[in-house]
Structure formats: C-alpha cells, structure tokens
Amino acid sequence: MANITTLEFEGFYYIQAGDIFAKGCRRCGGTGHYSFNGFDSICYLCGNVWEGRIGDIFENEAAAQKWCHERAVRKAQADRKREAARLVEVQALADKVASVPADVREFLLQVELNEYDGEMDYYGSNKNANYERDAFIRNMAEQLQFVVNARRPFTDKMVEAVRTNIAKRATREAELVPAPEGRVTVEGVIVGAKVVEGDYGTSYKVTVKDDRGFRVYVALPKAQADQAFDEYNDKLEAEGKSRYDFGPACWFLGAEGTDEQGVKGRRIRFDAALEQSRDDKSFAFGKRPTKGAWI
After folding, report:
1. Greatest extent of the chain over all pairs of C-alpha atoms, in Å
2. Domains in the chain: how many in total?
C-alpha cells in the first residue's frame, strides 16, 4: 500500500496515496490517529485502516483542488456574513452606549467584571478585589460593555435604578471609617464568629466592630478563648447540661435552638497588627492578637 501524504490547497487539505487523490477520513484527515502527537489514539472512525483513512476518492488531483477551492469560497462567504452581522451588533452597541446618560454610562463602563485577576495576593487568593458583586449592576454593565444583548434597550426605570445605586454607594462610602494599619488597639463588639479548619488545626475567627466604626477580622486571642470556653462549660454544668449536647464549638458559635450566642455580642479589647482590605477601606485583617481582655 502506498504511503498517505496530506496536501494543502487554499487552506484546505486532501490526501495523496500513490496515484490516488482523496478527501481522507473526515475525523482524522487520513492520519489514522486523533491526538496531539499522532501515536497515542487510533481514530475510531477509520480505525487506522488504509481504506478508511483514504475516504472518498477523486478522479484526479485537479478535482481534489477544485473541492478545496469550493470549500474555501464557502468559508469566505460565511466569514463575510459573520463579520457583517458582527459589525451590525457593534454599531448597535455603540448606539446603545451613546443613548445612555453620561453619568450612568461612565459608571457602568468602569464596572469590573473579571472575578479573577490571575495574580495571587498575600493570602493566596487571586480574587479580583474590584470585581462587581451586585448582580443587577453587573448585568447592566455587561449589556453596556459587550456586544451580547446590545439591542436590548435600557428603560428609564433601569437607568434610575442605576442612579439610585450610585447615590447609595456614594453615601455609604462617605460614612465609612477607614481601618487603621499597623499595631493597633481594637475595642468593640464581636459581630461575627467562624470556625476555620486548617493545616495547623482549628482556628476561632471573629469579626469585631470597633467603637470607632471600622471592622476587624482576626483570631480570637487564646486567653479569651480559654476563658469563654471555661465560663460556658461552668454555666452548662450548673444547668446539668454538657457542651456535647450542642456540639464541641457551642461555646464559640452558640447552641442552635437556644438563646445562647456564644462569643457573638460580647465586648472585647486586644492589640493586633492590622492590614486594610483591598476592596473595603473600613475592613481590616488582624494578625498576632495580644493583650486581650473581655470588657
């Protein structure tokens, strides 16, 4: 059997095997394999059988090249049609953008839609800190930034909803108290508690709202954790109960089905090294809490 050679004409391919010119297997193109290196995977359509690899046979090479030319012509026509349709949509998007009031347009065009930025931060995350989390605003921005749904117009209510959102954000931003950085004394109320399992064991994380207005996410100081644990156990024993009735972390998270809140709602003071969050200036991450005290 003659060796099979792949030939190209106007961007399309046919094969030659001795004096035979043919289309080749429509899955593997006549190679007999369907993989990146041509060795690991036998084509399931032709089974790497010579007759199957050849496929439909042409009368001569001129007929094979004519077949390639006809395919190239059809592809060019389809490409022109797609490009014309794309340009229509691009113009529709441009018209839509131009029709949106300037204040709303400027806001939506700056909305960040990429959730990941590809770079790991200090905490091992590649989350984009500026990613828009409001689903309505994200949807509006997508309609203004991409050709998809470009012909769907914005109603007056939609525009006003965006303006309301802009105003709320401006008010909220003005009211935010920036979290300090460096070694800081934090004093306030625990508004959140979370048990975190890691490579080095269990951590008890709390979110503290400082009396000055900013929030801090930090590990509960060990001395205060031990004190809260002992106090909770003593209380349960006095009532004839056990923490195992509610779960091992009930002293921290509270007991479901009861009015116990664990550490949430308690006031605390401690020193910690704070680092301001990238996407919320009123929020900080705390490390190495010391000098803790329940107050």
Report:
1. 99
2. 3
Q: Which residue has the tokens 């939609």?
A: 158
Residue 159's H or E segment, with its range, is helix 156-175
Query: Over the stretch 176-228, which tens digit does the pLDDT of each residue have?
Result: 899 999 999 999 999 999 999 888 788 999 999 999 999 999 999 999 999 99
Q: Which residues contact 78 (CB under 8 A, 6 or more apart)?
A: none
Give strand pairing partners of 57.
Answer: 22
Q: Are residues 222 and 167 located together in one domain of the fold?
A: no
Which CA distances in Å does 49 have to 24, 31, 33, 237? 12, 10, 10, 80
Q: Is 142 exposed, middle or buried (0-12, 13-18, 19+ CB in 10 A)?
A: middle
Residue in 292, 141, 287 with CA at minimum distance from that of residue 226 = 292
Does residue 218 sit in the same domain as residue 276? yes
Confirm if 277 and 121 have CB atoms less than 8 A apart: no
Task: Residue 277: name the closest of 68, 122, 108, 48 by CA.
Answer: 122
Give the residue numbers spanning the domain of 14: 4-75
Give ∠ CA 99-102-105 in degrees, rounded to 5: 75
> Can you tell me the distance from the alpha carbon of 97 to that of 89, in angstroms, rounded to the nearest whole number?
12
Residue ending a domain, among 154, 175, 196, is 175
Domain end among 59, 75, 91: 75
pTM above 0.70, yes or no: no
Residue 264 near residue 194 (C-beta atoms within 8 A): no
